[in-house]
Q: What sequence folds into this?
């Protein structure tokens, strides 16, 4: 299953609302996760099963969608949110990641 | 505290073999699926393989199927990745990861170990 994220990169300012989309090449139901990765660090899961916020993750992060179209939103950007974000499907083996969205400071 | 510590990375020639290990602590290891995910330098994430709690099910990315083998030893709280017929394109940081509440996502990650395949 191919996962296509858009945009590939994004410039935004502190306090902005940001949305990233992920399109699956076939129906994956709700089996979609979102990860954040900072330079030189391992990824961290933010959202699992399309819309479930992982414990300890701030509520400014949210996810929605099902089937083939998914969105990830940060409601109000904070300095620590500038990172790369990846979607990942686990409906079908092999699990596949999107190509990533690099979120930069404007 | 959940800890995952990878080891075994290094420089290997194309066609060579390498075995990665991941030592787990701070949780009931035998209760969780475990995975390996890699990241080539400057590139995105690529899921490599995962293994069920008792080792009875194993799944692989197409790019490594037939060359890599994932295994686990619940008595030693460890998961392994045996890599053979290594290619230049296998060069990456390899992360060990533990599943979350469901087996569908990777909740905890190690710091990664670098594998470089080069002549």
A:
């Amino acid at each position: 299953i191919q996962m296509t994220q858009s945009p590939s990169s994004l410039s935004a300012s502190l306090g902005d609302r940001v949305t990233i989309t992920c399109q699956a090449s076939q129906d994956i139901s709700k089996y979609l996760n979102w990860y954040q990765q900072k330079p030189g660090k391992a990824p961290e899961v933010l959202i699992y099963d399309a819309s479930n916020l992982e414990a300890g993750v701030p509520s400014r992060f949210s996810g929605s969608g099902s089937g083939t179209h998914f969105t990830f939103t940060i409601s109000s950007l904070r300095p620590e949110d500038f990172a790369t974000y990846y979607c990942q499907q686990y409906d079908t083996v092999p699990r596949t990641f999107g190509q990533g969205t690099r979120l930069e400071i404007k | 505290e959940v800890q995952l510590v990878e080891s075994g990375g290094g420089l290997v020639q194309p066609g060579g073999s390498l075995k990665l290990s991941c030592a787990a602590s701070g949780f009931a290891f035998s209760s969780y699926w475990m995975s390996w995910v890699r990241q080539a330098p400057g590139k995105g994430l690529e899921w490599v393989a995962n293994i069920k709690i008792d080792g009875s099910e194993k799944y692989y990315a197409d790019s490594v199927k037939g060359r890599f083998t994932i295994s686990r030893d619940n008595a030693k709280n460890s998961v392994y990745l045996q890599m053979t017929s290594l290619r230049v394109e296998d060069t990456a940081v390899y992360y060990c990861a533990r599943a979350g509440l469901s087996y569908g996502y990777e909740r905890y990650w190690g710091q990664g170990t670098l594998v470089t395949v080069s002549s």
In short: Chain A touches chain B at residues 31, 33, 35, 37, 42-45, 48-49, 54, 86, 88, 90, 93-100 (CB under 8 Å).
